[in-house]
Amino acid sequence: MTDTRDDFVISFKPHGGYDSPLIVVKGSTAADVFDKMKSLEASGVTAEIGTFDAALKAAFTLGGGLGATPVAHPSTVPATGYAPAAPAAPAAAPAGPPPGAVAPSCPHGVKAFKTAPPASGKTWKAWMCPAPKGTPGQCPPEWMK
Length: 145
Ligand SMILES: [Zn+2]
Known about the structure:
By secondary structure, the protein is α+β, with helices and mostly antiparallel strands. It has 2 helices and 7 strands.
């Protein structure tokens, strides 16, 4: 794969006005940019840009003098302006213990409230012993309705 980045970018403005055309020449090397600049000059494109710029300004001046209004064009932007995509619905929060419930304790510590995973299709709720699963002597779940 070849490197197609344009590391060299030179911008030209024929005059210092805010309305000056902007000519940007890009290239992967300085020599590439130089070749493109010479090509632009030789092709007469720069002279055409000047002619086009003058014609554009004349049209603006003439249109303004005649009271012309810009032609409306269809827009893909909603009339209300930028409409960001609706945020995704928040994931269902894991069910917590009943309000006011105090976590019971066991010899291993304070028990944790657990519910069946939503994808399991089950609805069990229980206080679970904090000892790692498989620990000998782990307390059984305290099932809740
Ligand atoms: Zn326990």
